[in-house]
């Protein structure tokens, strides 16, 4: 499947929306049927192209939350106030509409079921989307590789795929850090992920885990620097980021 997936990246395909679901106050998941898609690897992404009536086009890349060999894919999009594409996808797109998509894209930030080493997943906000694909693939394969997730979000209502992540906790370990508001009875005050939090709540470098970090640029760069300071091999720290540099 991996070889086939990488051969079709240049072709635009039409996908039909079969369902949508509100994930957060500003985020939505979208399921598309894309004839000829043929599946993707956990962690890959897709280009989405919108075309206006006057011919103007806007293209953005979005991580794929699904990971299997079917022609159905799931995206999750967070609305950007000044965005050209995300407001349409979150607020306007309806079941039955069609989207142009191209992919799957990317072969570096991916996890495959044949990998057996420990895996540390670290996500900020909507950066959880490709991480969810990895967790789903891990569960579907019945993998016994150790999976741990550190997820940083602003508030409990900002958690993407909240129910599913809760239901899959038997297949992976999870630590959630809330930066602005915590659930009732939460044992710690809100705060950002720090070097100390990483040291306490992630797989140690001595176990040589593969580490996947996805989120806003500043978050990803800080996390990657701290991981190296904590002794992780830079070659084993894979990152995906969004937003300005």
Automatic annotation (TrEMBL):
Pfam families: FAD_binding_6, NAD_binding_1. InterPro entries: Cbr1-like_FAD-bd_dom, FAD-bd_FR_type, FNR_nucleotide-bd, MRET, OxRdtase_FAD/NAD-bd, Riboflavin_synthase-like_b-brl. The keyword Metal-binding applies. It comes from the Bacteria. Residues 10-111 form the FAD-binding FR-type domain. This is Oxidoreductase. SUPFAM superfamilies: Ferredoxin reductase-like, C-terminal NADP-linked domain, Riboflavin synthase domain-like.
């Amino acid at each position: 499947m991996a070889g086939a997936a990488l051969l079709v990246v240049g072709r635009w395909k039409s996908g039909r929306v079969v369902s949508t679901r509100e994930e957060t106050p500003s985020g939505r998941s979208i399921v598309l049927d894309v004839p000829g898609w043929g599946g993707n690897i956990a962690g890959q992404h897709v280009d989405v192209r919108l075309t206006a009536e006057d011919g103007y086009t806007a293209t953005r890349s979005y991580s794929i939350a699904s990971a299997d060999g079917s022609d159905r894919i799931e995206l999750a999009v967070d609305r950007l106030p000044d965005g050209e594409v995300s407001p349409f996808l979150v607020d306007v797109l309806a079941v039955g509409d069609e989207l142009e998509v191209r992919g799957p894209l990317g072969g570096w930030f991916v996890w495959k079921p044949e990998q057996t080493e420990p895996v540390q997943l670290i996500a900020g906000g909507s950066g959880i989307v490709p991480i969810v694909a990895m967790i789903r693939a891990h569960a579907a394969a019945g993998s016994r590789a150790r999976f741990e997730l550190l997820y940083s979000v602003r508030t409990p209502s900002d958690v993407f795929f909240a129910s599913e992540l809760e239901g899959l906790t038997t297949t992976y370990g999870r630590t959630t850090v809330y930066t602005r508001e915590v659930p009732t009875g939460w044992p710690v005050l809100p705060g950002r992920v720090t070097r100390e939090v990483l040291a306490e709540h992630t797989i140690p470098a001595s176990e040589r885990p593969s580490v996947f970090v996805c989120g806003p640029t500043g978050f990803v760069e800080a996390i990657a620097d701290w991981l190296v300071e904590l002794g992780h091999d830079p070659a084993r720290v894979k990152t995906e980021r969004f937003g300005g540099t």
